[in-house]
Structure formats: structure tokens, C-alpha cells
Amino acid sequence: MVMQVERDEVERPLVAQLKAMGWTHRPGREIGTLDVETPLLADLLESALRRINTRPLDGVSWMGASDVDRAITALARVPLGEGVVKANLAATGLLLSGLVLSKPSAGHGGASATVQYIEWHPDRLGLNDFTVIDQLRVRNRAGKDSVLDVVLFVNGIPLVAVECKSPDLAEPVREAVLDLRHYAGNSVKEEGARARPGEGPTRPAGVPELFRTVQLLVAATGETAHLGTVTSGPEHFHSWRSVEPEDSGTLRRELLTAGLVPDADGPAPAALGEQQKLVGVVLRPVALLNIVRHYVIELPIVTDSGATLTVKAVARHQQYRAAEKAVRRLLDGRARSGPMTEDERGGVIWHTQGSGKSLTMTFLVRRVHAHPRLSEFTVVVVTDRTQLQTQLTEALETSGSDVVTADTRTELEGLLRAGGRRVVFGMIQKYGVGLTFSGDADQDEDGRDLAEEYAEAERTRAGTRAEVAPPVPNFPECNTSPAILVLVDEAHRSHTSVLHAALRKAVPNAAKIGFTGTPITTGREEDTRRIFGRGDSPRGFLDEYRMEDAEHDEVVVRIRYEGRTGEGEVKDGTSLDRRFDDLVRDRTPEEKAALLKRWPTGSDVAESEPMVAAKAEDMLEHWVTTVLPGGFKAQVAAVSRKAAVEYHQCSAGGPRPAPGGTGRLRPRVGRRHSA
Q1: Exposure pattern of 618-657 as b/e (b: 16+ CB <10 Å)?
Q2: Residue 517 DSSP code
Q3: In what ranges is there compositional bias, type Basic residues (predicted)?
Q4: How would you classify the pairing of strands 511-516 and 347-351?
Q5: Distance CA 567, CA 674 (A)
Q6: Helix, strand, or coil here: 449?
Q7: Spatial distance between the Cα atoms of 44 and 53, rounded to a whole number of angstroms
Q8: pLDDT at 430
Q9: Virtual CA dihedral for 266, 272, 278, 281, nearest 10 degrees?
Q10: Cα angle for residues 507, 512, 517 (degrees, 5° grid)
Q11: Alpha carbons 247 and 637: distance in angstroms, whole number
């Protein structure tokens, strides 16, 4: 019964949707049993190799029979001795970069040739063959057969494996992932109750040979579908909730053609399911090749034992959506053409904290440098995070991008003048209100002068009580080319306007894209959009992914708020009122009222030294008794830099600012929890 539900409610609708999008369907019974010695559709691959690999001058195929045989053998015999993951990484390199073939046939005319298995150029994607097979039977080396639900082949090469499970199962997605990993010969170790012998479903026979080239794994249940790779555990598979950048109208028409939705002339159309979205976006022929080439990357991770492993990560829906929107804006937007016009190729990508903005930037840079119209861009990444620099550098190795770092202003000026196809990191100092490069700073972030930061905050408060705008660095004009893309990390920060003014001088015609996940203060939100450009979201951003989206996707855990009161009372209030009356006795009632509105402010109360000291003591006690036992850390968000320094001094037991005046706030920190 369960098998029939899987076939009727999950597998058949999925295949029908693929057919409506242009995939050629071949039932598994027509294919017969695939031999793991050559786990490919050799006839389709041979035709594709001849079709794709042609001489540039006359378009005639140069591959002879021996060339084809050598190319197929090289892909089919990638060694599995070190496991399927390393074999998959090696095979991926062949798919993306091609096979260097020595002594090709005379039709080529050269000493060596590069054989491409897939046509990646956006203008020639029609040369590829897209075939879907359901109920594919594969026989492993032990003579045991496995039947895979759905496998997607491009030019006869298996790129996607789909496992379908009935939504009636207790954990259908998890069971599908475990089966897929078992097929791949890279089983997930189950722990705890799930590891008890004699319980749970019997896993299928492994066929790792087929998974050498598989780039994406899909766990489908009809209601939803989750996406991962050969290294993804159940917790790292993710659903696909976005239709953009695809057109929802096109997707609905395809579903109507497949008989999967009612006629549009009826009542309001039903919401698209998550399986329909994943299939309609990720597995669309053109999009699939885009994702495989640009949105599946290798990442090194450090295990609990200290070892380093390489895993494959695929973009989540919001990362793909944002990067594709940015690329389309770069391609279609108007570049700045004079002093009175603004560049229309940028915008702000607002993705909440913890949603993977660093990877979004990585995917975007990789996509830009692999696009034929954008490949010569100089990409300037302005950041204070060395982690982002390391991550981008490692991820871009496969794209052939030259990655360099400018630690000083002089270095950045030189690299901007040189231009060319490269990624330039401008490493700025993390703290302070100005724009200082890390190599030009007197001290790094671990040597912060907190006392000086406190004194600066006091000087600011004693003056206009408004943030003093730092001077704009006197950058010279370095490069007027429009083929420059500036990516600004943490675009909400106060230095953004200063950075904009500096870059406006140095690279006046560059496109600019800002990334942030922190709420932008009301006064700066419109200024931030003015600097980077307006987008199409309701708030004028290029793309948005808010906290509620991240919670729904389980990208971040839901935040639980526990209210803790910090009440205060005025000590010697009568004396304080009498002194105030003495000071203002010559003022008019209107002037007295205006002074009372101006002082004290909420910041004065929040920055009161006794109040800060009592709150710091309460927070430390709460952390030690409640948070620390769970192995967690804590972070303090203060009302100002001055207050932050005071909290630091109180928590560290260092010297505190001397309280001033006889009228002071005496804190009463409560233990109550608000609802």
C-alpha cells in the first residue's frame, strides 16, 4: 500500500511535471538493468560528445571513435578506492572543466584537446540532452539489484537522484535521505534509538558507481521535497520555498499541462506545493545546469576530532534567488553614464543573521566570473571578516578567479587601477566610525582601546549629542570602468556613507551591492537604498529574507524572550528638584518645559553607572546559573558605545566611570519574568 502511494502521489506527479518542462521520459523497464561498470546511458553520451565538441572555425565535430571511448572510460572509471565522496569530487571536476585528451584523432589537428561532457555556455544549452528515468534498476558488483525511484540524466550522465516516500510515514524526508545516502555507498550512521538493530526499514543495496557524477539528491514526499548532496545528512537537506527568479505563471501552466492543478478558470488558484516549487525551479533544464555549475561548492569543515573534511554544499532557495536577482540586475540595469546619473545595477540584499549571507556572496561572485558577459569584472569585496575572505577564496578556486587582499589603502588603489578579472578584498577595521583599513590601523580588533572609545563617546555626548560624521578619505580616481562590482559586507554600518563617498571618487562607475542582516535604523534606511539602489521588494531591497522566513526554514532556531526588569528610582529627588529650580529660576515656563524635555534622556537613564552596575551583576548571575550550564554563550546589546564600555568594565571588574552629582538613579533590578 505504501509503495503504491509513493508511486501515485509522489513519483508520477514529479515525472509528469518534469515532462511538462521539457524532459524526455524513458521508463526504467525500457532501459533494462544498468551495469555499474559503465553506469551511464552510453548511447546518449556518445551522441552528445560528438555534438558538443566541435572545431571553432567550421563547427564540425572532431571526435573519433577512440576519442569517444577514452572520454567515456575516464568518466566511468573514476576510482572509488578512497570513497564515493572523493570520487564524486574528481568526477565533478571532469564535468565542470572537461577532460584533457592527449593525442586526439586527426580531426582535431592538435597535440591535445579538452573534451566537454556538458555544454555550459548559455547560448548553446540546447545541445544538451535531458532524460528522466523512473524505476531505474542498477546491479552492483555483488550482483544485487537496486531500483532507484527517479534519476535525471544530462547527456546520459546521472546528475540528480530522487527518492520518493509516502507522506504517511512518520519521517518521510529522513527515510528518503537515509536511502539515498545508502545507495551512494556513504551511509549515515544512525545513533540512539534509531540505531537499534532489527527495527526500521531495510536499506537498499549500495551502487556508489552511479553516484560518482550525481550532483544533487532530492528527498520527495509529494507535499514537500528537500535538496542536498552526497555529503548532506538529513539535517542538512532543505526545502525550496521560492519560485523566483522563475515565473510563477509559467510554472502553473506547466502543472496544468501535466494535469496536476485544476483549470485556471476556476476559483483562486491553490498555493504551489514545495515539491512543485523545487521541481519547477531546481530541476528545470536550464536552471539545473546553472545550479550545478555555480551553486554547488566544496567546503572544508573541521570535525569534533580536529580533522578537516571536504563537503559539498548546495545553495538554499534564498541564496539562489538573491544571487540570480543580482546577476539579472547587473545584466539589465543601466550603468552610470555621467555625473548627473546613478548606477541602476545594484541594491541591498537584506538577509537575516544566520541565513548564510557569506555563502550568498560566494555564489554571486562565482556566478559573475563564470558568466560570459560579466567574466572580466573586477569584484571588490569590502569586509572586516577574515572568515568571509577565507571562505570566498577557497570556494573560488574552481572558478579560476584570481583572489588578492588589500590590507592598506595604497594596496587597494593599486589593485583598482590594475582592474581585470580578479576578486579584491578590501579589509577594513572592524571598530570605529571612520573608514580605516586593517593594515593602516594602529591596532587590530584584539587590541581595542576601550578607554579611548569610552572617552570618545563622552566627548560626543558633551558636544552636539549627534553622531559626528568622520572625514571622507581623500581617494584619487583609480578606475572609471563600469566593469567593476563592489560588494559591501554589513552595509548597515555607520561607515557605509563614508565608504560610498570614497568609492564614488575611486571607482565612479562601479555597480554596488550591499549585504546586511541587521535592522537598519530609520534615519539610515533610505540613505542605504540611495547608496546601493532600490530593489523591487516592498521595502525597496533587492532581496529580503526575514527572521520569520529563517525560522520557518529552520535555518535559525526560534528566539525565546524572557523579560527581566531593571526598575530605577531617583535618590534624593527633592534635593535634585530644588537644585534644578535654582538653576532655571530666571527662565520662562516655556524654557523650563523645553529643558525638562531635553534632559534627562532615555540614554542618560540607560547609561547611569549604578543602573549599569546592577544590571551587569544581574546578567552575570543569570548567565552563570541559567545559560552557562547549557554550554551557551551570551551577548550584551547596549544602548550606546558608552554604555557598552560601562557594561564591559562592570562585568570584567575593571575601573568604572565615577558617578557625578548628588541626584542619582538607584537601581532596583527585579527577578520577574514577563509573559
Answers
A1: bbeeebeeeeeeeeeeeeeebeebbbbbbbbbbbeeeeee
A2: -
A3: 665-675
A4: parallel
A5: 13
A6: coil
A7: 14
A8: 45
A9: 60
A10: 140
A11: 41
- Could you tell me the three cell numbers for 133? 528515468
pLDDT at 409: 80
Spatial distance between the Cα atoms of 544 and 318, rounded to a whole number of angstroms: 8
Q: What's the per-residue H, E or C state across 373-399?
A: CCCCCEEEEEECCHHHHHHHHHHHHHH
> Which residues are registered as beta bridge partners of 112?
102
Instruction: Give the integer Cα–Cα distance in Å for 234 and 590.
Output: 67
C-alpha cell at 350: 537584506
Q: How far is Cα 571 from Cα 162, in angstroms, rounded to an integer?
A: 70
The predicted pLDDT at position 141 comes to 86
Q: Determine the Cα–Cα distance for residues 591 and 595; give it in Å rounded to an integer.
A: 6
Do 314 and 291 meet the contact criterion of CB atoms below 8 Å apart? Answer: yes
What's the 3-state SS for 624-667? HHHHHHHCCCCCCCCCCHHHHHHHHHHHHCCCCCCCCCCCCEEE
CA distance 476 to 502: 9
State residue 94's pLDDT score: 96
Nearest residue to 134 (alpha-carbon basis) of 256, 19, 240: 19
Cα 496 to Cα 531: distance, rounded to the nearest angstrom = 9
H or E element that contains 152:
strand 145-154
Q: What is the pLDDT of residue 600?
A: 65
**Unique residue bearing C-alpha cell 527585579:** 670
Tell me whether strands 484-488 and 347-351 are parallel, antiparallel or unpaired. Answer: unpaired
Contact 45, 116 (CB under 8 A): no
Pick out the chain residues at pLDDT < 50.
193, 196-199, 430-434, 443-448, 464-468, 494, 657-675
Helix locations, 184-313, DSSP H:
248-257, 274-282, 285-294
So what's the pLDDT on residue 635? 80
Q: Which of 532, 417, 426, 422 is nearest to 477 (CA)?
A: 417
Place of cell 528527498: 219
DSSP at 188: P
> Which residue in 349, 297, 302, 305 sits closest to 326, CA to CA?
349
Q: Where in the chain is the domain with CATH 3.40.50.300?
A: 315-335+342-444+472-553
Helix (H, G, I), strand (E, B) or coil at 301: strand
What does the alpha-carbon distance between residue 503 and residue 442 come to, in Å, rounded to a whole number?
Answer: 23
Instruction: Name the architecture of domain 315-335+342-444+472-553.
Output: 3-Layer(aba) Sandwich (3.40)
Residue 486 to residue 365: CA distance in whole angstroms = 11
